[in-house]
């Protein structure tokens, strides 16, 4: 008997395809051993999602919101324990925020033109499968927020979470997938690999079945996705200044600045990173800041703290240069997102739990001002007037165009800073977190895309325009 080898190969391929399809359908809550498997599962889920109506898609979003609210406390505790950063109570606020205020399918607004030559319709269509890189600072909030927005837009998502908070992120992915399936949606709309790594991320970024990349993190990861050759949305770093002029309600400004700076121990990129205050009200501001949870250090204590929370490095001198190499600094990651009480204890200062922020007066060129510390250590710089304040604020924001805060009752001063600094978010007379909907109006996001221009991302950010033209018909006028 002669065996048709081509028929055997065909049957084998069909069987393997069915096995693989079953594996993708069953999955493991969306978690796979390899990036190729994670992408293939998400691609299959996307094909199934396309068959659902927008109303059915919105039911999946409702289920995701409910799951996020129900698990907000648990995921906050997991994130703080695993990453060693932030505050549980503040992360709970973040999780409720993204569950409640991340836009869903209502964010997708079609446009139409009707006239003598017929009808033209523009609708927002999905990209397909999105690769999302998420940070250790918000291992649950960013997954929830991106998951809701990207699925609302009709996409499936392959996540590449930061390895230092992988268990939290993977737990969120599994739970949200379970909620989606229970609501009648396809399995694996959210996927990831069991062991996130730089290698896996690189595979994802170059994978032919990834149609769009979204990165939330520092300059390096944003540069990587923007250099990938794919459409990229980059949410980069910030160094937000808080400017206070002589017309401000100084007590309220102090209270708001401490609240914003201390929120989740200063992990959010929107949080106040330095204060620039007109000299005539500086002492009053610092006095009130101490009343509301700031602990003032000065002199040698500032130098000692700098040696703890910064790592000194020397830049190489140019060839033939006789000058000494310039000193530069990097943030000691061991203190990022730590409590102010813990940070102070490292220089022998013991304070009560009520202390939220370490404050200190510094020169404008101090490393505390220049570097994005991402911890509750807040330098304060005095200037002579609002013009000097604006000039310095623009300088220390480093052109990130991320976030700026100002406390003033002078509309002209507020306008001058807003126009000069050109940030994506500009908060007036409130804590920084008002800019993402905590105590302020508007929707929220944890992917604030300054470098690529989308700003505060929402479902529509993860869509592409599709235009349909019907000529000489369907006009009833």
Commentary on this structure:
- This protein is of the alpha/beta class and 477 residues long.
- The chain has 2 domains: 21-236 and 457-470, Aldehyde Dehydrogenase, Chain A, domain 1 (3-Layer(aba) Sandwich); 241-441, 3-Layer(aba) Sandwich (Aldehyde Dehydrogenase, Chain A, domain 2).
- It contains 16 helices and 20 strands.
- It has helices at 5-26, 35-49, 54-70, 72-83, 88-101, 141-152, 166-182, 198-206, 219-226, 250-262, 282-291, 300-309, 340-345, 367-370, 386-396, 411-421; strands spanning 31-32, 111-115, 118-126, 129-134, 156-161, 190-193, 212-216, 231-235, 241-244, 274-278, 294-297, 310-314, 327-331, 357-361, 377-383, 403-407, 425-428, 448-449, 455-456, 463-471.
- Strands 11-14-15-10-9-16-17 form a 7-stranded parallel sheet, with helices on both faces.
- It is globular.
Characterize this entry briefly.
This protein has helices at 5-26, 35-49, 54-70, 72-83, 88-101, 141-152, 166-182, 198-206, 219-226, 250-262, 282-291, 300-309, 340-345, 367-370, 386-396, 411-421; strands at 31-32, 111-115, 118-126, 129-134, 156-161, 190-193, 212-216, 231-235, 241-244, 274-278, 294-297, 310-314, 327-331, 357-361, 377-383, 403-407, 425-428, 448-449, 455-456, 463-471.
Q: What is the CATH homologous superfamily assignment of the largest domain?
A: Aldehyde Dehydrogenase, Chain A, domain 1
Main β-sheet, spatial strand arrangement: 11-14-15-10-9-16-17
Computed over alpha carbons, the radius of gyration is 25 Å
> Remind me, CATH topology of the largest domain?
Aldehyde Dehydrogenase, Chain A, domain 1
How many beta-strand elements? 20
Number of domains: 2
Shape: globular
Unreliable runs:
22-26
The proportion of residues in beta strands is 15-25%
Instruction: Tell me the structural class.
Output: alpha/beta
Q: Please give the alpha-carbon distance between the first and last residues.
A: 74 Å
Question: Main β-sheet: number of strands, strand sense, barrel status?
Answer: 7 strands, parallel
Could you estimate the helical fraction of the residues in percent? 40-55%
Determine the number of helices (DSSP H or I, runs of at least 4 residues).
16
